Amino acid sequence: MGSELTARGVDTSLPLWSAQALVADGTTVAAIHHEYVTLGCTHHRTNTFRTRRGNVGEEWAELARRAVKLAKLSVTDKHTLLGSLGPVEDCYRPDRSPGEESRVSHRELASLLVAEGVDVLLCEAFPSPLEALIAVEECVRTDRETWVAFTAGPDGDLMTPKAMREAARDCIRAGADAVLVNCVSAEKTLPYVDALAGLGVLVGAYGNAAAWNGPKVGAERYAELAATWMEAGAEIIGACCGTGPEYVDALRRRLL
């Protein structure tokens, strides 16, 4: 969503980032959801990664509700609506994670998303094992199915595969129903899938295709890499930064 908003000319500068697209009327957000539906996506994330009090102020709840409503315009009952919760601070700066102080923020967003009717709560792009665990605990408190996705950063330098496996195991003990790796360069994602496999829950992956210290990963190459993730045990396949609808189309043609 974030990369596609940028590609379509929406201001995605910090601190609002993707939430900026919700401030006006959200037309572009709705259009992107609709396009992904038409291309065969079955699981759709709400544009709530940045709808936090700390990012957008007192408007946070209104914007988060708007994000869910915009997704519901296109997402059918046959699809799964994932309520997205990102880290309170920068997803590439685990050193900035407030740790235990993030609990209230995760609790209030999780509660709102459940009240608005999402099917699953997705804690995504967490480089901090502690904050990921706190977010999972607060999501599990709602009694809604909870998934957690960890990131080692595009270069894979924020978390080793072993460390991600240990963090995933802790989150599973706390009640996570699925563990995923996201926003690692697609070319470097496989070792993390290998590390997450065999933990007794669903495993997933959605990689970073952006030109990050190297050439951009094209849609067909991305689908080729995703096939190796499935062979390693991933049952949930998606797309993260630097991707767009053409990537979902390539995944559908290659994997289904």
CATH architecture group name: Alpha-Beta Barrel
Number of strands: 7
Under CATH, the topology can be stated as TIM Barrel
Question: How far from one another are the termini?
Answer: 22 Å
Query: What is the CATH first-level class name?
Result: Alpha Beta
Describe the 3D structure.
The protein is α/β, with parallel strands linked by helices and 256 residues long. It has a single domain, classed as TIM Barrel, CATH 3.20.20. It is built from eleven helices and seven strands. It has helices at 2-7, 20-23, 27-38, 53-56, 60-72, 103-115, 129-140, 161-173, 190-196, 219-231, 245-255, and strands at 43-45, 80-85, 120-126, 145-150, 178-185, 202-208, 236-239. A seven-stranded parallel beta sheet has the order 1-2-3-4-5-6-7. Helix 7 packs parallel to helix 8 (161-173) and helix 10 crosses helix 11 (245-255). The radius of gyration is 16 Å and the shape is globular. The model has no long low-confidence stretch (mean pLDDT 95).
Structure at a glance:
This protein has 256 residues and is an alpha/beta fold.
SSE blueprint:
Layout (H helix, E strand, L loop, with lengths): L1 H6 L12 H4 L3 H12 L4 E3 L7 H4 L3 H13 L7 E6 L17 H13 L4 E7 L2 H12 L4 E6 L10 H13 L4 E8 L4 H7 L5 E7 L10 H13 L4 E4 L5 H11 L1
Parallel strand pairs: 1-2, 2-3, 3-4, 4-5, 5-6, 6-7
Helix pairs in contact: 6-7, 7-8, 8-9, 10-11
